[in-house]
Fold this protein.
Amino acid sequence: MATLKDVARKAGVSISTVSRVFNDPEKVRPDTRQRVRKASEALNYKPSRVARRLRVQTGETNLIGLIIPDIQNPFFAEVARGVEDVARDHNYAVIFSNSDEDPENQKVALDTLQTEDVDGVIVPPVDLDDAAVKDFAESSIPIVCVDRQMADLRLDTILSDNRQGAHDAVTHLIEHGHGRIAFIGGIARISTLTERREGYEAALRDHDLPVDPALVREGELHRERGKDHTEALLALDRPPTALFTGNNLTTLGALAALNQHDVRVPEDMALVGYDDIPWADALNPPPTVIDQPSYEMGQRAAELLLQRLDAPDRSPTVVTLQPKLIVRQSCGADSDST
C-alpha cells in the first residue's frame, strides 16, 4: 500500500509538496499538482484522513502506530503508556490497534496505518515469521519490534530477557523444595513464550531434574486457558506441587482454578507467575512474579523509533532489558516435592 513518501518519490517532489497538494492545493503550481495527482493515481494512494485532521489542528502530522495483542493485558497497557508518554513529549500522536494475536488482524492494522501515513510503527509480532511485518519492513515506514522478535529479520527491537526470567522463577521454586513444577506456557510461534519454556527447561536441567512433558501445557495465554490448564494438571495421577505460569492473565486463571478446587496456595501448591499484576496486593496470597520493565520497554521502543526517523540508514539496534523476581507469599510451601 502506497505512502506519502512513495508518491513524493514517484512525482519527483518533496513530501511537503505532496501534502500541500492534498491539503492546500492552491499553494502548489498547476503542473506540479497534476504530476502529484498522476503519481497518486498510479500508486493507488489514499490520503490520510487522520493526517488531514491533525494538519488542520496543529500544522503537522507526527503520527506513530502501535499494535498490541491485547490492551486489557496489564503488561501491554504499560507498554502502550510508555510509548505514548515518549511520543507526547516529542509532539507525536499515537494510533492504537489490537491484534488479538491474530496474524490477519495484524495485517489489516498495518495496512491501515500505512494508509494513514504514520511516520513509524511499533509492534510485537504475532509470529516468529510474521509475513505482514516482513512486508511492512520493506516499505519506507520504519518499524520497531517490542517484547518479541522476528526469527530471520533484523529490525530495531526492544526485548526482555525471557529465558533468564523463567530460569529465575523455576530456580526459586526448586530452592523451596519443589521438583514437580508445571509450566503453563503459550503459543510456540511467539518468541517470548518459546524463550520462557527454554528457561523453564534449562532451570530443571541445571538442577538435575527431568523435564516431564505431562507438566507442560501450551496454548493461548488467557485467563480461561490458564484455568483449564490448571484443572488438567490437578487431575493428573501425580499432580505438580508448583506452577510456573506464562503471563499475568494465566496466573489469574490458575489462581481461580486452585481456589475453586480448594487447593491452598502456597500450602498445597506453590506458584510463580510471569509479569506482575497491578492489584497483586489484593490477592490472597499476593503472588510471587517475574516483573518485566514493561513501561520502560514502551519508552525505549518509542525512543528507538524516533532515532530511526532521525537516522534512517543506521544499523538495527536490539536492546535486551532485565526482568526481576519479586518475592511475595505464593511459593513459601515447605512440602515434599518428590
